[in-house]
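sorry for the late reply, my laptop died twice this morning and i had to redo everyting from scratch. anyway the thing you sent over, i finally got around to it. pasting the sequence first so we're on the same page, its 110 residues, then the predicted structure underneath. double check i copied it right bc i was rushing
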Amino acid sequence: MALTLFEYVTSNNDGVMLMARDEPLLVEALIQKDAIDGHFDLREASTHDRQTVVLAHLETFGRIAAGKYERGELNYHDLAGLRVAHIRVSLFDIKASGLLRHVGAQRPEA
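ok and here's the structure:
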């Protein structure tokens, strides 16, 4: 089966988590907090601010994560009997993709 589109799952102090499937695998992608803050020049951003930014660019972040998945840039772990592929999207990954233009220090619209 082909990798499905990434969807938003949750936000926490580590960043924003997206999830896709490639049966029988679950594929989770963590968009790291520092990557979001660094690329979008966010200062003192809240979890909600980061979530808003990622949701506004969900398709693009999904493409970045899918690229890392296809290149095998991931780790695996088991969770409740399921095999999970874990991807960490860094600031380097965002910049190297060339998919997101740099946005200056503006708070995301709520």
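The CA atoms of residues 47 and 60 lie 19 Å apart.
thats about all i looked at so far, will dig more tmrw
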